[in-house]
Write a structure and sequence with these properties.
Layout lengths: L2 H10 L6 E5 L3 H14 L4 E5 L2 H11 L4 E5 L9 H9 L5 E5 L4 H9 L4 E4 L4 H12 L12 H15 L3 H11 L4 H8 L3 H14 L5 H10 L5
Parallel strand pairs: 1-2, 1-3, 3-4, 4-5
Helix pairs in contact: 8-10, 9-10
Length: 226
């Protein structure tokens, strides 16, 4: 068999998705993923949802899909609660987590919770297609992650600092990560601005940073959402 014939045989055996659901609260990300499917799987029907609630409703209304691409951080989920909800309601549907966070512990937890794969948004298009094809064929996709001891030590240090926060301070940090202002946090928690400022100051001190932006960046490195 020639190399060309082998390629043709592989292409014939290729498993193609009929319908997929992309769940992400950012339209630009959904558009980017849609374009990947349009190029790689032109006959595939693409459904979209901007929240877990909308995703569940879409699945109820449209029936089975071959694959769900779920962003790790959408507004109405906490950590892996979105994945867990989809696995509970639609156990036969493979769910691939898509995220800008590539923390080893997050990837491990997602796969342990039943994700069929974990695709970093930083992957090149060709690599994303390969990952999706692997999952569609029934395999599990896990990205190659750097095992840098320095990175691991930094992540452990960040987690330790976050763990040193009081429960209320962790709630406030979660609001900072979500981009909320002090007055919005005060309203959400039904406390005074003075209380919020005190919490923020304590957070900066315990995390050993000088600004809320630094605290948010640090929290993002370990996928903290509050």
């Amino acid at each position: 068999m020639t190399e060309n014939n082998m390629g043709e045989t592989a292409n014939t055996d290729r498993v193609l998705p009929d319908r997929v659901l992309i769940v992400d609260d950012h339209s630009l990300v959904r558009d980017g993923l849609r374009s990947i499917f349009d190029d790689a799987f032109p006959t595939c029907e693409i459904l979209e949802a901007d929240s877990l609630e909308a995703a569940l409703r879409t699945l109820d209304e449209n029936g089975d899909v071959d694959l769900v691409l779920l962003d790790l951080n959408i507004p109405d989920v906490s950590h892996l609660s979105g994945l867990e909800s989809l696995r509970d309601r639609f156990p036969a549907t493979p769910v691939v987590m898509v995220s800008g966070v590539t923390d080893r512990n997050v990837v491990r937890d997602a796969l342990a919770a039943g994700a069929a794969g974990f695709v970093p948004k930083s992957l090149k298009r060709a690599a994303i297609v390969e990952a999706l094809e692997l999952v569609i064929s029934g395999e599990i996709y896990m990205p190659e992650l750097e095992c840098d001891e320095t990175v691991a030590a930094e992540e452990e240090m960040i987690r330790a600092r976050i763990e040193s926060l009081t429960p209320q301070q962790r709630v406030v940090l979660g609001h900072l990560v979500a981009g909320r202002l002090n007055k919005q946090i005060a309203y959400e928690l039904d406390v005074s601005m003075t209380t919020v400022k005190a919490h923020v100051s304590a957070i900066l001190q315990k995390m050993n940073v000088f600004s809320r932006t630094q605290a948010v960046i640090m929290a993002g490195k370990v996928g903290f959402r509050g």
